[in-house]
Write a structure and sequence with these properties.
This protein folds into 2 domains: 127 residues, Aspartate Aminotransferase, domain 1 (Alpha-Beta Complex); 231 residues, Type I PLP-dependent aspartate aminotransferase-like (Major domain) (Aspartate Aminotransferase, domain 2, 3-Layer(aba) Sandwich), CATH 3.40.640. Helices cover 43% and strands 17% of the residues. The strands form 3 sheets. It has a 7-stranded mixed sheet with strand order 3-9-8-7-6-4-5, with helices on both faces. Strands 10-11-14-13 form a 4-stranded antiparallel sheet. The mean pLDDT is 97. Bound molecules: pyridoxal-5'-phosphate. The site of pyridoxal-5'-phosphate (PLP) has 14 residues, from helix 5. The site of pyridoxal-5'-phosphate has 14 residues, from helix 5. Pathway: Cofactor biosynthesis; biotin biosynthesis.
Length: 391
Amino acid sequence: MLDYLQADLDKRQTQGLMRQRRLLDSPQAEHITANGQPFLSFCSNDYLGLANDPALVRALQHAAAEAGVGSGASNLITGHHRYHDQLEQALAAFVGKPAALLFSTGYMANIGVISALMGRDDAVFSDKLNHACLNDGAFLSRASHHRFPHNDVVALEKLLQASTARHKLIAADAVFSMDGDIAPLAAYLALCERYDAYLYVDDAHGFGVLGPQGRGSLQHLDLQSPRLIMMGTLGKAAGVAGAFVAGERIVIDYLIQSANSYIYTTPAPPPLSAALLASLHEIEYGDARRAQLFAMIALLKAELKLTRWQLWPSETAIQPLIVGDNHEALALSQYLQAQGILVPAIRPPTVPVGTSRLRISLSAAHSMDDVRKLVSVLHAAEAAVPAGIAQ
Ligand SMILES: *Cc1c(COP(=O)(O)O)cnc(C)c1O
């Protein structure tokens, strides 16, 4: 096995697909210290700049002093702390759903919910560009799994029409994590009504950012239905860690009884929920942060004038700069790094072959100077970065 692993690693290296971790020595922020050097970063999903917010840090410290740091037992034994409960109620109210359930991560929420709700006689319908953990959930559920082309409502309808499954679940990212575009959720919901299906919306990148007071993509699109189940992550715009699922009370009650990644695990420490209650307050009263974020998005789109690489259309904090070739995307990322700017090169299998890209993510913590610096270094890179080798 070890020989096989080494051969696989060597192959990744020659294909320009090797990934590296950087050692972070500062809080997550727009200016970070990584591998001992200072950088301007466009890497994080901390869209509102809350990951190092003093109010959240204080809430966590205060709660740790009072409630300790360990949950100590699973939720169904004695691990369900008052802070967890308060946060669930606050999240449900915030997104306008009857009930909510906390999970330790978004990954665990997706695999837990889909595998609990779906079984052998059921069918899951997923956008081809969905986040990997939605696919893992479908796989774990043993339901039949149908993947439709990105945002293709017509193809999805054909699949639903042909399905004889007992229960049907459409699963989609609300805001696609590597493209930044928004799924046609209103059309999906109409299909749910028509074909007796349910819609599971992964709002990892919309919660906190989109909709009135940052209530998320569903409120942004003004969608309400008992057929809707939403998942929001709490480690991105919310700045901490974890995730929640919100929906009808019946759905949440059922998940408490049946979602393995909820039942057979120790919940996140109670002080994290206290920090998230503080975060939720910052999100709700965070119109100024969101205005700053959207100003930075507009500034980047207005000032970036490249001929060699293209920004794909996105109205959100995720701005994908499509390069195409793996090596060229990596070379561009490395060029920026040499100028003190971090933007990750995203390559297959995270994105389709031939669409390697720089994933620029913007934050309310960025200033106009930060964005202008990125723009000017990208302009200089057009002439400086060698073209990729055709694969
Ligand atoms: C980040 C992400 C997840 C996973 O959330 P974690 O809390 O980081 O595990 C799920 N879905 C999407 C679309 C994501 O971007």
